[in-house]
């Protein structure tokens, strides 16, 4: 297999946090109307892209035993290659740091980062809006990562309105549970009737409508929320299982992480208004 002249490109596929998640109703197609605030963290999976002169797409590394054709990274690359009739291929190496079923967007972030990177490396020249249209077929959260900016999402999560937030330091805890998003969103006990946000959303009582149900189904999530609450207000992201608390400094967040019970895992990261994948990609191509 012949490599092209391009040097390998490595990007972070960042974690996301839902700072709140309101479910406004259920649509006839089964999807839910929701409102949520996404922000990105300077922490995530690493993806390394090495272009090839044939059209073969391979994914290696921490693939968790998922068959290639079911892997969202492969699906994203194949989707873009077919859409743009690209004649190049790529080897993609994954270093997995984000937990599966953790609510931090690992799979969606990997897929979006793949689309963003290959759009540039393969010279597809699609706009972010066009990439997002492709990406939403892979998952409702993929357009958020393609947009790459802290945003409030409406609809099924595809209608994005960028907002500016002061960066913070977050201690994120994964209590060892794997939560199925599909199970939560199809559960009869899920709250689905939260009123739409008003214009001044920051004055409203913001929460995660999935949290009460997940705590009932997954006791370890409730334990993690209660443990974090000793140090700062705690929240769950997405449909879980990851929980988080925000701190003013890295030192404060690191002190909490140091007390983490051994049965759980976690990390500390700062939030970023612009996704670190976008930041690194822009810097890479500005240097060329």
Describe the secondary-structure layout.
Elements: E1 9-26, E2 32-52, E3 57-61, H1 72-84, E4 89-95, H2 106-121, H3 128-135, H4 142-147, E5 151-154, E6 159-162, E7 169-174, H5 181-186, H6 211-217, H7 219-229, E8 234-236, E9 243-247, H8 250-258, E10 265-272, H9 276-287
Parallel strand pairs: 3-4
Antiparallel strand pairs: 1-2, 2-4, 2-5, 2-10, 5-6, 7-9, 7-10, 8-9
Helix pairs in contact: 1-2, 2-3, 6-7
Give a quick precis of the structure.
This protein has helices at 72-84, 106-121, 128-135, 142-147, 181-186, 211-217, 219-229, 250-258, 276-287, and strands spanning 9-26, 32-52, 57-61, 89-95, 151-154, 159-162, 169-174, 234-236, 243-247, 265-272.
Give the class from helix and strand content and strand pairing: alpha+beta
What summary fits the major beta sheet? 10 strands, mixed
The mean pLDDT is: 94
Please give the count of helices. Answer: 9
Low-confidence stretches: 1-5
The counted number of beta strands is: 10
Which descriptor suits the 3D outline? globular
Q: How are helices and strands ordered from N to C?
A: EEEHEHHHEEEHHHEEHEH
Q: End-to-end span in angstroms? A: 25 Å
Calculate Rg over CA atoms: 19 Å
Question: Beta fraction of the residues?
Answer: 25-35%
Structural notes for this entry:
The chain is an alpha+beta fold and 288 residues long. It has helices spanning 72-84, 106-121, 128-135, 142-147, 181-186, 211-217, 219-229, 250-258, 276-287, and strands at 9-26, 32-52, 57-61, 89-95, 151-154, 159-162, 169-174, 234-236, 243-247, 265-272. Strands 1, 2, 3, 4, 5, 6, 7, 8, 9 and 10 form a ten-stranded mixed sheet that branches. 42% of the residues are buried.
């Amino acid at each position: 297999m012949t490599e092209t002249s391009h040097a390998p490109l490595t990007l972070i596929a960042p974690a996301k946090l839902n700072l709140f998640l309101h479910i406004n109703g259920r649509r006839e197609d089964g999807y839910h109307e929701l409102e949520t605030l996404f922000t990105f963290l300077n922490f995530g999976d690493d993806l390394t892209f090495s272009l090839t002169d044939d059209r073969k797409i391979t994914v290696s590394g921490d693939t968790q035993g998922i068959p290639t054709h079911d892997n969202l990274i492969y699906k994203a690359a194949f989707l873009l290659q077919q859409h743009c009739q690209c004649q190049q291929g790529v080897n993609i190496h994954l270093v997995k740091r984000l937990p599966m079923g953790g609510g931090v967007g690992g799979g969606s972030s990997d897929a979006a980062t793949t689309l963003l990177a290959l759009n540039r490396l393969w010279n597809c020249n699609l706009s972010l809006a066009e990439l997002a249209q492709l990406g939403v077929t892979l998952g409702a959260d993929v357009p958020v990562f393609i947009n790459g900016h802290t945003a409030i999402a409406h609809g099924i999560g595809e209608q994005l309105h960028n907002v500016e937030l002061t960066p913070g330091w977050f201690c994120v805890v994964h209590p060892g549970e794997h939560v199925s998003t599909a199970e939560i969103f199809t559960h009869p006990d899920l709250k689905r009737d939260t009123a739409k946000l008003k214009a001044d959303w920051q004055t409203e009582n913001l929460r995660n409508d999935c949290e009460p149900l997940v705590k009932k189904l997954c006791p370890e999530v409730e334990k993690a929320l209660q443990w974090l609450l000793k140090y700062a207000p705690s929240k769950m992201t997405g449909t879980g299982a990851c929980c988080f608390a925000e701190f003013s400094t890295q030192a404060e967040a690191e002190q909490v992480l140091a007390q983490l019970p051994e049965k759980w895992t976690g990390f500390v990261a700062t939030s970023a208004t612009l996704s670190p994948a976008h930041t690194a990609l822009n810097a890479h191509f500005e240097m060329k």
